[in-house]
Specification:
two-stranded antiparallel sheet, 6 helices, single chain, 9 strands
């Protein structure tokens, strides 16, 4: 593991336990309940999601998955309390292994599999998610850049369905 990978791994682990600033404010509903709706989240930098989800977890934020939650977005399955997350019939989850991106001016971006970070991400997921992903070919440190899609009622194998109370 090179120095950059060790540093990123350390930052990710720290951000998972340290509260973040509350820049993502939940939407407040008339009933007084609040929730954040995830509709079309393509993912992004793991450390940013770990920080955001740590804040949501510490604040007791309710989360409704109501569309695509892909890549780093799926880390909510391991970082948030299961009772605080629900999925509508429109929820879609997309999983894949982690990578690093190198940018140089005037050259195409270079993506490289990040073995240690992929293993860390994989191991954040609950056991039922890890078992499913392993059956699909991603077992942790190995490269699996293709997205493993979970749609429809299959999402409810990992996330409870939303009730009327969750949506009111």
């Amino acid at each position: 593991m090179n120095a950059l990978q060790r540093a990123l791994l350390g930052v990710l682990m720290l951000l998972a336990i340290v509260p973040a600033s509350a820049k993502d404010v939940p939407v407040e509903f008339v009933s007084g309940r609040s929730a954040i709706f995830i509709k079309d989240d393509p993912g992004g930098v793991l450390t940013e999601f770990a920080k955001k989800y740590s804040t949501w977890r510490d604040d007791g934020t309710n989360v409704v998955i109501d569309g695509e939650c892909v890549s780093a977005c799926t880390m909510l399955l391991g970082l948030l309390r299961p009772e605080k997350v629900c999925a509508t019939k429109d929820a879609v989850l997309g999983f894949h292994s982690a990578s690093t991106e190198t940018k140089e001016q005037g050259k195409p971006d270079i993506f490289k599999h990040a073995e240690e970070i992929s293993a860390l991400e994989f191991n954040m997921y609950p056991g039922v998610v890890r078992a499913f992903l392993a059956k699909e070919g991603w077992y942790g440190p190995n490269a699996h850049p293709e997205i493993i899609w979970v749609r429809g009622k299959d999402v409810n194998k990992f996330v409870r369905p939303c009730t009327a109370d969750d949506l009111s």
